[in-house]
Fold these 4 entries.
Entry 1:
Amino acid sequence: MLTLKFKNTYINHWFTLAGDDERKGRLSNIDMYLKDFYYGEKTLEAAEVKMQKTVLNNLLSKTDFDLVIGGDLSNQLGTINTCMRDFPKSFLGIYNACSTFVEGLLLASNLIMNNNVDKICVLTSSHNLTSERQFRFPVEYGALKACYTTSTTTAAVGAIISNIPSKYKIISATIGSVVDYGITDVYNMGAVMAPAAASAINAHLFNMNKRAKDYDIILTGDLGTLGIELLNEVLKRDFKISTDNIYDAGTMIYKESQNKYTGGSGPSVLPLVLFSKIIRQKRYKKILIVGTGALHNPTLINQKNSIPAIAHVVEIEVES
Amino acid sequence: MTYKELVEKMTPKENRWKNCIVAFLTGGVMGSISHLLVSCFDVQTMLVIWIVLSSILTGFGVFDSLVDKLKMGIVIPITGFSHSVTSASLEYKKEGLVTGIGANYFKLAGSVILYGIVSAAILAGLRGLLCLL
């Protein structure tokens, strides 16, 4: 796998917006909450578009930027494409399922390092009900769910990357490759993504000549409680890496009492937890974020294919 | 051990017996109420009451949480059928009467109709054969 090293790339600002279930959860320090799933709009898709617009407008009030790199879970990136109609900025739409934000971050870092662009906004969002409809059943349909599944988080997150020094420096990144271990259970995305996360972490450590213990925290995206157990097991079994500093962002969002199965999922989970919790804690100086994406396509699954997965890794250093 | 076997081993198992017993009890209770309704009115009225009731509960967003608690006991009877068409039409109403509701109304219930007709035809054929013998 390819590892890129960056110079002079920093995270300057961010804006986090989350839904009502997330407000009732374990995270504090989120910039804005929604009262309901509709956010004053007539359709759920329009609500997600408005969420993205709110994030962009808030970031624009802090600083201007030249390019937006972003994606979400909707078909043909429908929501982010609709959102960007109202912003006359250069735009790159990207999709790697739930690892989209990390993918955007490493692309932005590369452009910034080469001095091609001054400031880039990396944007992502996910909405519990729009994903539910797209990947599973109608919103009101009471389908029985497996106890080990994850629940899509409602949130939109944007971050500004530039070469203006700040406390948060992007050091390096590893671009993952698609792996498929033959899992076909659409309710078990943790199991689908765990091997992808393991191989990306292993590749990053090998290419950077580091050990897992060199990082204060390795934060995976949305594996859930089952997925993180599987990741530790695969790391130990296949790559001989044994470490106790791997945590999953999806498991940090909700309280047990909220009945969210094994945790939150979606591309916004990792940046939401990173910006509202991890990056603010003084004990985490060297952070490795691992965006994990289950490249799930309902048509291909119905045609009896297994689910491929990908994981990208970005290393962030926080100066004190 | 392959990865699939590892996943199989580590994935928590659903408590199928508990789910079965809950579904058996709720389905049984529904059956008893239906019996009362039939003795008060007639079969058609009983069916209409269940269909309307589950549609309304779906509209208010209550039915899906009831399924969570009461399991398949309320999905297998006609309430489940009514719930599936109502939830699909709620979902697609913004996409228009023809391309939205019309095209997706039986998205979930289509299989029930198709295979219901197919199995009814096969059983009717068998019965016809038995009568001939």
Entry 2:
Amino acid sequence: MNKPKNHIAPPKLAQRLLKWFLKNELAEEVLGDLDEKFYKTLESKSERKAKRNYWYQVKNYIRPFALKRTKVNYSNTIGMYRHFLKISWRGMLRNKVFSTIKIGGFSIGIAACILISLFTLHELDYDKHYENSDRIFRIANEYRGENYFGRWTNMQGPFKEVLEEHLPDINQLARVVKWKWGNVGENHIRKVESKQNIYEEGFFYADPELLSILEIPMVYGNQSDALASPNSIVISEKMAKKYFPGENPMGRQLILNDNAASTYTVGGVMEDFPITSHLQGEFIMTLFERTEGPGVSDWCCSNYDFYVKLLPNTNKEQVEQKLIDIRDTYVIDLLTEAGNNEIDEIQNYQSYYLQPVSDIYLNEAEIGDHIPHGSIYAVWVFSAIAVVILVLACLNFINLSTAKSIKRAKEVGLRKVVGSFRSGLIRQFLAESIFFSMISIFIGLLLAWGALPYFNDLADKQLTIPFQSVNFILLLVLAGFVIGAVSGVYPAFYLSRFKPVEVLKGSFSRSTKASFFRSGMVVFQFATTIVLIIAALVTHQQFDHYMNKSLGYEKEQVINILGINTLPEQRRELLKEELLRLPNIQSATLGDYLPVSGSRMTNYGFSLDGSSDIDPGFEAARWIIDEDYLATMSMELSTGSNFNPDLTNENSIIINESMAEAFHLEDPIGTRLVDMFDGKYNVIGVVKDFYFESLTADIRPLTMVYGRGQSTLSIKLSSTEMENTLEAVENKWSEFQPNQPLRYTFLDQRFEEMYRSFQRARNIFLIFSLLSIIVASLGLFALSAFIIEQRNKEVSVRKVLGASTSGIFNLLAKDFVKLVLIATLLAIPLGWYLMQAFLQDLANRITLSWEVFAVATIGALLIALLTISYESIKAALANPVKTLRSE
Amino acid sequence: MKETRLGDFEETLLLLVGILEKEAYAFKIAEEFESQTKRSTSIGAVHSTLNRLSDKGFLTSEMGAATAERGGRRKRIYSITASGQRALQDSRDFKLSLWKQFPAFAGDLNFSA
């Protein structure tokens, strides 16, 4: 026997494993045998082989005769839980109303929760799909003045070259134009070989680098050169299928707005933007070597959003600091050269901010840009509502479980007598509540599935329930366990505490503590319900207020004919005159600027000629209108005159009252204004303030200069007779542009569109307050049924002694009304506070009126009374003999 | 009722227990099995079968002495019971009677051939 191998021992882990599964009484002999085998093997073979053999031997001990006896235990537990489930099931069937309420309320809560979670997760899922998402940023300006703080994305075009030259941390940089400039937005498009103009949306401009910065996957072409030649365009896969079905569109030519002089060449086809991308669109036009419009503007104007991809391991803060350094060393000189007179202000107050791409959609930094955003507040409010409804449903569950306590008390007593431990009873009640919550989750899932289309409508989303996702199903099951356990804990401990002797003797009485707890829950449920009703009413009032607000112009009976930019200029004029000849058309105007969102928007810096008082950062909207615009929109001049087509209007300007006020003009007519390009104007008129942007903000200064719109012609009808007029307009249009269908909008509809989000918020509050009312009244109904059942004998005795039906009803209802009143007292201040906070940031807000609170209170009271009256009246009308006979 | 017939592996092990006498414990039996039959097995398989034979009443066992090789652990020594011996005998007799009925060898049994 060779000694040296003596120090080697069998593998510890294998031994531990063996001891873990092996019967204790076998441990000694088996371990001994295996040791002997091990050392025997070691004599002839290597250590590794011996150890492997040991593992092999251990593995071969996994045989029924050698395993610890867990199986007997196991089947016992299964039996026990099977018994629990059977008891739960029987209990459920015995109290059908109770169970329906319990499960129904729970399911509603869970359905609401599932829907809202889908929404929240979707909102949080934006822009998470980039491989290098931590290196992709958007540059924003930050202004931190004494009275003003703001962030916005627009920067000057030539910044690109400066940054590319002096900031090596930037790997790639691309400018994007998303606001209405050039061909951004909607256009009429056709293939070169076709005559038919087709209306499409989703155009924007970008530098060639954008494709690789945002890692946009390409179907045809490649990221690096798809946009790298002049007049190239990248179209989405969807559009490629529509215009070039079954062929490779690379190199094909597209014509925008009938402008055959400049065609666009398809340089690539990209996959459609995922729904969770902040940037959406179907056509990307290149900014590369453009000769006019987007792409050529100089240091004068901030027209571009800047997207950058930093080099790996670059520090965001350092780059921000370097941006400021570059501003001071290079940009300031260039700006001065370009005649910018705000240099000091820029140096003192302005800095740069890098916004991570995944933050763009929810835009917590409140950066001004031109793309639609989700709202982090909506995410919070929605989640809060979901949690509240779920809590209400859980409380219902707790409430109903404890309310049934007398019925279960005997069961508990008997179980204890035959030897059940309290821990066993707790386990039973927990299992029961998890059982209920699982059923509810299942029904809730079905409800959510059924309600999803309506919810999508409400939230303006395309959500789907991820049934195929294993994680989702597991999450639901887990949620079922957690919710069931949480809402089962209190009833379990409460019910399992009963003393068998008292219960079985019948001297058992309900503890006042429990009824206090129950009352508290009713108060909480109704308080939340009232708050939600208040929220729904207030948002409704605010929405109504906006819709009926006098705007300073008339939005009714105005039709905007769109897409006339495919006509040559003189033909547009002719169209206007021809339309005016139609009966029923009162006036017409060529103007692209409309007082609703989604139309053209330009801002200029303005100052008073010869005065330095005015803040150099002053900006006003600048509209181009013709002489018929004010009449068509029914806008009024407070002083001065309109443009006169017979005079030269080149240097004339009309301003609004807010502008006059901002410049402190007592007598504005004849005042001289200078714009940022040194254009000088004479004020010829002041238009009364009208809301040309959202009503949620105050009216900004506005200027109007003379000119003609290129793409929009608005007509005002003299009567409400729409159909014939529209038909006449359509006929006229097809004479002018036979290859393009007439496209028009109604101004009042576009106005309403601006308040969609408000409408949505109102609908959401309405629906969820309705849900919470349902849940709360279900709870109250069951509770009243229970309490009245307990007081049955009392009621009968009173009736025998001569109490009237109404007297008994009062007696029974009094308690509940008291609870609802307490809830009201709590809810009104809370609702007032929350609504005040909500309204605070809005211009044109309504004042909170007492009526709202009165309606909410009375509503809640009525609902409560209705809910309890069924059982109360039944009790009051019941024949006392029936109840008392058994005594 | 317990199954009292012997399988091939069971029969071999039973015989080995008889051969090894005082050294008949799982490890030794497994070793002996491997060296005599040139077939490999595991101690677990042997142990499991010994256990089954004990259940059938063919084997009995008791804890034997501890040795240093086993880390001071005792071993379980198996020995054949009377019914175990009878089962072996029955098995042998049964096979012999079958052999005798085999026409090619009938009346001319020569096991040494």
Entry 3:
Amino acid sequence: MDSNNNITSIWDFFQNPIIMNLLIGVVYFAAIAAFITVLVIILMWMDRRVAAFFQERLGPIKYGPQGLLQPVFDAVKMVSKGNITPRNVDKLVYNLAPMLIFMTTLLVYAALPYGKNLTVVNLNVGVLYLIAISSTATIAILMGGWGSNNKYSLIGGMRTVAMIISYEIPFAFSLLGIIMLTGSMNMTDIINAQKNVWFVFLQPLAFVVFMITAMAELNKSPFDLPEAESELVAGFITEYAGMKFGLVYLAEYANMFSMAAIAVTLFFGGWQGPLLPSWLWFLIKTLLMVFFIMWIRWTLPRIRIDKMMKLNWKVLIPLSILNIFLTGIGIKLYQYFTGMGGV
Amino acid sequence: MSMDSDNLNLVDDLNTQEFTINMGPYHPSTHGVFRAVLTLDGEVIVKEENVLGYLHRGMDKIAETRTYSQFVPYTARLDYLASALNNMGYVQTVEKLMGIEVPERAEYLRVIIAELQRIASHYLMLGSTTNDVNAVTGFLYYMHDREKVLDLLEMVTGARLTSNYMRIGGVIDDLPEEFFPKVKEFLAYLPGRLEMMETLILGNEIFQERMKNVGVITAQMALDYGVTGPNLRAAGVRFDLRKVAPYSAYGKIDFEVPVLKNGDAFDRYQIRLMEIKQSLRIIEQAVQQLPEGPIMAKVPKLIKPPAGEVFHKMEGARGILGFHLVSDGGPKPYRLHIHGPSFVNIGIMPAIAPGMLLQDFLAAFATIDVDMGEVDR
């Protein structure tokens, strides 16, 4: 009798909506964290093999089939290293920065549509959320640059701020055309709207602007100014070692995937595709996009900071505004000829 | 409340502050142990100061405690990226002092090795410059081709970096049989690759933006500071000791001295590519014209030049390489002074650095192409 009572009370305990949500949250978090870890191992291997392919080398081939276990060895090395906090750093800011950088990455993964009905949180303002969250990493990078008490780190951090002011505006503007076409900021709605034609064909200009600014957002060459290793040693991560460096590294690769996923969702029809299951289509498209990003990254030299500003303010912002204007005209013409409201 | 006055104070506090940054001696882009003390206003350089001497080994003094032949390998450690050229400059100085006639075949062999070495050296400069503007792939392409040059050098001299091939009075060894087909293959292979690099790197929009009008050295400035070598020719002065005062077998070989006019980082980069093409021409002709005969002159076992002094200069990979040798008639030099082109060229950095961005500084420094082994000696 007693035990029965007990079970009921535990059951009731789990029936409590607050506890329920909390538990679901924990499960989601664990799922995303596990997904990212596995993903980063694949991406690291892919990055090295792609780089080697472009550079007439072999890349890692010794450990595991095709060198697939190389990142695992690297991860073990990273974890086994000492957790050093240099003496003269701002301890709180310095230690918090890598966690925050990784946190923003996790938050982005929460809103990605991985497949049909396969989203952690289906936000009705998904696009806005992604734009907002992905730029908060900048604050964390500045924290790392400032807290490290190193001049190279500081310059790296300052460059990040200079960059976000420049590229965040065209980044957001380039997505406005899509929002105008679909009339929704929900990722699922945007994907459904691309049933017949991908937005990359309707919004080619927006895609170009988006890709350039996305490279800047990712801090990848030609816009890898905050961590320019030939100038600033390693920029804002100069003073980080061990797993703190590992977190930043992890976040970098994870961001590459999430940015590719956003590009696929907004411009290439997301998880839609014939025959194969939707999550597989999503993975295929996104990894192809990642390959494209790596291709750019391993081909182009680094742009100079003032030229980057000029490109953003004088070319990309006018182009993205022009794109909004053209989209508006296009929608009106479409409505005029078909006598319909909306696409 | 005193909101307004607070704001005013805030504006006063917002004055920017210059700060000093130590670039090097351990820095990925200072190519060895060069240290530049930069005073920065934001990212703009206000003042630059060279700090040298981290690689000082006292080469000039070491020479006084070694016999003349013993010092030949030491010269390879001066400009370790063009070791054969340093060896050549030194042995020619001793030969000049003693009046030794070097056999013709040896002169041609020296030219072949020297030009291969020049290509290897230029390739490293091109690669590292490309890496400094973060075109990592370009860097590896250059390294891939440089490997082929090093293979050729290894085939002849047995070493890849410090070849120690030149001897006072000639060279140590003749070319092996398998060298000739390999060098033919190499001469056919490289022009296509150079063309590819020209389109891939020189044609790249971002690369041009990074390099053009950066770190301009005008012809007058170059002459004032004594800048020599490719840097001088990129500024528009047609001066190459191989042509102006031909030594070794260069007088009998037909080649051109490429000249560009802007003297910026881009031209300094491009002129190396052009010089590599001329070096290929020289190697091709030297292999064709290679005469028969001995490879060593009759030189006494213990070299004892007559008392006196001599200065000899030649075209190194980075500019005029000079050796001033004083002999007191003994088996060891009384005094040796080395005139290294890198040391002279690096002196122009404080003059061209102010007003540059931090990123420009690297492009300018990399294209001036100094070798710290030669600067600090």
Entry 4:
Amino acid sequence: MTWLTIIIAGIVTYFTRMTMIALVDRDLLGERVKEVLAYVPSAVFPAIIFPGIFINNYGAFIEMNDPKIFGAIVAILVGYFSRNVIATILSGLSSYWVIIFLL
Amino acid sequence: MLTKTQLFSKGFLAVAPHMFSVIPFGIICGAIGIELGFDPVLVYAMSIIIFGGASQIVFLQLLSGGASALIAVTSVGVINSRHLLYGAVLSEYLEKLSFIKKLLISYIVVDQGFAESNKFFMKNKTEQHLHYHLIGSGVTLWIFWQLSTLAGIVLGSFVPEELGLKFAIPLTFIAIVVQDLKKIDHVIVMITCGLSSLLFFDAPFKSYIIISPIIALFVAALVLRLKK
């Protein structure tokens, strides 16, 4: 039963990936829609970023002095000026660790 | 003009730095499945059949909590519905591929691969074999996802939870969008999405993950209209 559920979940997921690439003719999308699509990364990824920072493992809001907020600010600054993905991730993680382990 | 191999390598190199978040997340994902008491083969099969980190974890948590199969499948569908937006963006660059190739390439469209390949596509629209960049990024993410979930299943959570490695996930996506903070229209769209995701966090089926992008895209349309 669990196997069947996984297979159906896999098919559903595959359709979310495939539908717009293989089934929907791009000409069906109007010019306005195509212009708006340029904003997809900015419109989607904060929905992963914000809860990942501001909501804890138990689904509650974190305190304003939570180390994750500090880590995120460091990552944003380092990322903005270095343009380097590894530096962004590691600076965010390490500044977070400094607070939780050393302070 | 770049060769197919060059494009593939560029795709690989573009997502390689994200392994700092993909690998720990994969290990966590595999380990959670085992902790919840699922058959290791089943937990691993999900990495091939579903191939979507967050949705795999939610799926297992729901089933182990006694939720019905319908609820579990719906949640996976809702969480992964964001791929529809990625597909709509990518279709511009994949238009000329044969139907079969489109079917195959669709399987490897994931967040980081989409993000990095899309950045490359926007700057290199005239390249002939652009899709090899997406294959490079997607295949790389696929292989590392398989290996890391497998590691989590076999070794358990050998990375101590106190390290808080889940925090690498928001950081990886900060790295993806941070340069767009230079553009005020993008900043407005990002803040709209982020605040909406917090506001709708408790909406059923984790639907905040698609509700907030839709709201943000409406705001983007509004911003575009004002810019003209």
